[in-house]
Amino acid sequence: MNVAERKQSTAPAEALDWLARFEAALQARDDAAAAALFIDAGLWRDLLAFTWNIQTMSGHAAIAAMLRETIDRTKPANFHIPASRTQPRWISRAGTEVIECLFDFETTFGPCNGVVRLVRDVQSLRAWTLNTNLHELRGYEEEFKRRAPPDSTRDFGAENWLDRLTKQRSFADHDPAVLVVGGGQAGLSIAARLQQLGVDTLIVDRHPRVGDNWRTRYHSLTLHNEVFVNHLPYMPFPPNFPVYVPKDKLANWFESYVEAMELNYWSGTELVGGTYDDARKQWNVALRKADGSERTMHPRHLIFATGVSSIPKFPDLPGLKDFAGPVVHSGAFADACQWKGRRALVLGTGTSGHDVAQELQAHGADVTIIQRSKTYVVSLKEAQSVYAIYSEGIPFDDCDLLATSFPYPVLRRAYQLSTAKGRMVDRKLIAALEKRGFKIWYGEDETGFQMMYLRYGGGYYFNVGCSELIISGAVKLLQFSDIEKFVAEGARLKDGSVVPAELLVLATGYKNQQDTVRRYLGDEIADRIGPVWGFDEGGELRNMWRRTAQPGLWFTAGSLAQCRIFSRYLAIQIKALEAALLR
Fold it and tell me: Mind listing the pLDDT tens digit for each residue in 323-342?
């Protein structure tokens, strides 16, 4: 056995030893001893298990303070490494060699799991990062886990399954406990989780058909991350799904998901507005159906699942009102074929801007893409590196657990390393774009696209061919700084020339979900909660998947993977409130 093999062989025993010492400190209620098992700059990210929050503690003092406040209430015990888990191993994370150990334990409230990463500190192993997650509530397990044996009798002459489902979905004689606004991956994921916890939940979506939030978007739209990352809760994609799922296939899957999971879903229904009744601890929410009829409901919880891409941004552009052709946001752009042989401008060089420009060019349009700000470009293959844990050959549930386990400073460093690698791999592509005049940006701290997404919701492009079109001149490039104003026939440049166009597509992004709240719930609530998405001072996404400053108001958004993973923790909090375990 060589040195590396010997090192790996001792990793399980060393990890178990650390867990035993950690549990002993917790059992002794010795918060200082527990904190001393971390390096000085150690990080502990907790998802509900200790804090009933999603938050990160940094350093011995913060860790000890959290334990003093929570340990008597949570009574953590039985730290162990199940045989079914990926066993402790030496591995590199964010450029640091660690023993990574996935483990299970219990608290007063239910079974938990977590991840600890141990580094060699002088002669001992101490924790660099610790992650602890509440996996489920004891006594309130998911419905499929507590289902009684099937009854073989048949109720001839009574309601059948379809009758009961139709009645359930009508809400004719009661209101749901939870109203979810938005029927995309975020809304479906949280509704499925809540339903399995026995929380009566209704999804409303303004589109006429389930999946239309994807189905109605531009023709060539396809997911940019690989299929094995993107499953919804409880129902993985079938094995015949393509690596990159087309929008219409995803939309149809959403439709199937609603039926298979028996979710309560009202299509063609939009939120008109709402207020919160502090005395009754419930919402007064007005809904409008496609036929113009309205229904007022009084849910205890209101979840905005309208996504990072919610209200389109229409920037105040000089002379835009004078432009003679149609002006359409990229989120509503759908028919490229009608622009064959005609000139089009696409404002914005994020993913949507590039995709729309490429689609127009493929249909024979003369396209100019306008760059407003520096943009990060990465090849599609290299973009998958941020999901590398899903390619390590370990169980899928372990991958999801690992995905929750990286505190912000570690995540930031990991993205810097993956961005540096991608920059090297894509150097010829980047050099050719810069030679053409395209302005490249890697983020303010060179963390690349994933951190741009988490901070701002955009600012990058996964290259699926449009970069080559820009390099070759098949898609023309124009800098927004060279434009004086828009005029009837196109864009007038500062040198007096005009770039002619009959169509202007605005790939200019979307407003913050705080603006969505402002529109539907008013300024007072919007100001109370503050911005949604982007990182707070503690390195967590603001207002996401956790209680906000407004009682009964919640948010969920993000990729399919984020929605699958974090819907568990949002659902647990709501169930705990419904069961009076949490106040």
Answer: 999 999 998 998 899 999 99
